Amino acid sequence: MARMVPFPMLPTESSAERRLYEWFLHRLDDDYVVYHSVDWVLRGPKGADEGEADFVVTHPRDGLLVVEAKGGGLAYDAETRTWTQSGRGGTHRLDEDPFHQARDELHDLEEILAARPDWERWKPSYGYALALPDALYDRPAHPGAPAEIVIDRNDIDRLAERVREVMAHWRKPGRTFGPEGMQEVGIALGRNVEVRAPLGLAFDEDDRRILELTEGQQYALHFVMHRRRAAITGPAGSGKTLLAIALARCLGEQGTRTLLTCFNKGLAGWLRRATAGTTNVDAEHFHALCVRLAHEAGLTVPDGGEQPDGSPFFEDDLPDLLERAARALGPRYGAIIVDEAQDFRPHWWPALLALHREPDTGLLYLFADDNQNLYGGAVPEDLVEDRWHLPQNLRTTKAIHEFVTVFYRGDEPVTAGGPPGRDVEVLGYRENEDLVRLLAIVLRNLVEERVPLGEIVVLTPSRRAKSPLRLRGSVDGFRLSESEEPGAVLVSSIHGYKGLERQVVILAEVGDRHREDLDDYLYVGGSRARAHLIVLAKEPVDREIRERTGAAGPSR
User: Fold this and answer.
1) Order of strands across the sheet with 150-152?
2) Domain boundary among 122, 155, 188
3) Are residues 347 and 247 in the same domain?
4) Strand partners, 502
5) pTM above the 0.90 mark?
6) CA 218/CA 238 separation, integer angstroms
7) Domain that holds residue 303
8) Residue 370: predicted pLDDT
9) What is the mean pLDDT, run by run of 10 residues, along the chain of 556 residues?
10) What pLDDT score does 193 carry?
11) Same domain assignment for residues 144 and 65
């Protein structure tokens, strides 16, 4: 069974495409990847050239085949050099020779692929074909329409063999394509997007993990790219940020100037690194955007000093400056993408959309998890036309997923797609000095298990000024740093680390303050861990958490 992208099939009015999709799915083996309804925009000195292929068939050995599908009957008039198509809707003249159409689609796709890295190394054999599931075609209509590249009604029962024959017709000696080429095609088509793990983290530097969008996420990406305004929701770990990055890259590479923004500074840093080198993409957190454009517009920006999140400076002053700057500078973005959109206050949206060339109807994509709403914002219903929900947590282990799901309040069901993983540990302490000793023991144990310090983050519910642990700066020889430093353990607030992740998360000072927000802290903070989660909670909160989640306690 071939791998079809997207799966399931997107809606289409073409019965020929629907039937071919099913035939490719069930009659080609699993070495094939078949892309349906592939579209692109090529930009050159003469402007934009939009293109679309009905199917792109890829195989690691046989290469790549662009397939144009035509239902009903086809007839060619040699005198006028025109084609007509007949079917249930009557007979009509085709605007373009279907063979030339398929050839031009292939040339466009070749241009896109040739821009990928190391094209000459993985360059495949490639060609085009015409599929006529309702008609017979046994002799060439003209010299540019050979029967050797046609799949007609008689070929359907032997479709796999016929596809191999057509691909063999185009084969070039010495070209292999292989897994690298297959991967590059998926990336170029925006259907198999790969993004390195956040902050480049991995347990083994020689074996860095790559996060690849699943078929469901690829389908979501394709869905979004065919909508002008959409909201994509899902639980922590469902891949929303990966999709936001993939979408920004695709739009930027197609020539659309795109703003990719969020509330959190740390997350914005990752978005910026993940899109570095992509033309037409600005990745920046919201308040930095406000300051930059205010300066650019020549406006006076007051000194924010050490004002905390939620102060009037961040809540009102900077968004007001952004709106004034937008009026002075004029709109500049053709698309705006907001990650963690639930963090944005309702009165920030007009300021943000003032930067959009088409604020009422232009491209706008919002990625959100309302269960991570720590700031009182909301995704505005009136700004989007469609919604898509990602139901599966793919980033964390099942053990972590089962723990944080206890605190998930969304209406949609959430499933786990990660490996089983190690049990979550919930350890109790009585006083601050007990917490310091406990954290030291946990860090020593992790080091003994050969977990690099760069894979660990300590998160607390409190700002630094309110956190006794963060104010210490060190624990039993382990240096605690508010920024990434070699040889130090990163420490941050849960708020400040939202949207980011590490292999091991230690949630500390849980239950000391803000008991009413405990569920939010455990969900948001716990879901930052990918491989292992340890919770250091004040007694008796530790017992309450273990009872609710079934998490492991201290070993006896």
Assistant:
1) 3-5, 33-44, 47-59, 63-69, 126-132, 150-152
2) 188
3) yes
4) 529
5) no
6) 12
7) 194-390
8) 59
9) 78 85 90 86 51 91 95 91 86 93 93 88 94 92 94 94 96 85 82 39 34 59 81 83 90 93 90 91 96 95 74 91 95 95 91 95 89 57 83 80 84 72 91 92 88 92 89 92 92 87 92 78 90 93 93 64
10) 42
11) yes
How many domains are contained in the chain?
Answer: 3
- How confident is the model at residue 375, as a pLDDT? 46
Q: How deeply is 431 buried, as exposed, middle or buried, from its count of CB atoms within 10 A (0-12, 13-18, 19+)? A: exposed
Residue in this structure with the two tokens 């199917």, named with its chain if needed: 55
- Identify the residue whose tokens are 């990745």: 283
CA distance 272 to 454: 20
Give the SS3 label for residue 252.
helix
527-532-534 Cα angle (round to 5): 80
**With contact defined as beta carbons under 8 Å apart, do 412 and 391 qualify?**
yes
The answer to whether the CB of 412 falls within 8 A of the CB of 425 is: no
Q: Is residue 488 part of a domain?
A: yes
Residue 402 inside a domain? The answer is no
Q: Which strand ranges, in their side-by-side order, compose the sheet holding 502-510? A: 425-429, 529-538, 502-510, 456-460, 489-493, 478-481, 474-475
pLDDT at residue 541 in the model: 93
Closest alpha carbon to 155 in 128, 129, 130, 133: 133
Picking from 364, 367, 370, the residue whose alpha carbon sits closest to that of residue 352 is: 364
pLDDT, position 236:
78
> Would you say residue 71 lies in a domain?
yes
User: CA quadruple 219, 224, 230, 235: dihedral positive or negative?
Assistant: positive
Q: Quick one: pLDDT at residue 427?
A: 94
* CA 261 – CA 271 distance, rounded (Å): 8
Whether 395 maps to a domain, the answer reads no
Q: What is the CATH number of the domain that holds 280?
A: 3.40.50.300
Which of 337, 356, 390 is the C-terminal boundary of a domain?
A: 390
Concatenated DSSP letters for 194-228?
Answer: EEEPGGG--SSGGG--EEE--HHHHHHHHHHHT-S
